[in-house]
Design goal:
Radius of gyration: 14 Å
Strand content: 25-35%
Distance between the termini: 29 Å
Largest sheet: 3 strands, antiparallel
Number of strands: 5
Oligomer: single chain
């Protein structure tokens, strides 16, 4: 079972009614992927090994060969993600943009995000 509190357009939790939760749906998985991508390695005090390896594999010079593999691995290791069906990334002005379509156990989901 997947249950995520919805985020608003600013990336903040939505509070109020019971309907602000995403349950067992492709939208819940998309939000899980997004929040996992936005968590930097070492940022979460309960598990410093959890997170996206921005400082070592994604940002900076010499990471052209590792950044996409690291992001794809992070997406594929999200619970109930079956596969990545479409993936595109670009780096402009020190910002990485990722757009991908994934197949989940609940159906297809789309992720578009600026990372790092």
């Amino acid at each position: 079972m997947i249950r995520y509190r919805q985020l608003d357009y600013n990336g903040d939790y939505v509070f109020g009614q019971q309907s602000v939760f995403l349950h067992d749906s492709a939208a819940a998985v998309a939000q899980a992927i997004l929040t996992r991508l936005l968590l930097w390695s070492g940022e979460w005090f309960l598990d410093s090994a959890e997170g996206t390896p921005y400082e070592t594999l994604i940002l900076g010079y010499g990471t052209q060969g590792t950044r996409d593999a690291a992001v794809r691995e992070r997406i594929l290791s999200t619970p109930v993600v079956v596969s990545i069906t479409k993936y595109n990334s670009s780096v402009v002005s020190r910002r990485m943009t990722v757009a991908c379509d994934v197949q989940t156990q609940f159906g297809p989901a789309t992720i578009n995000s600026v990372l790092g």
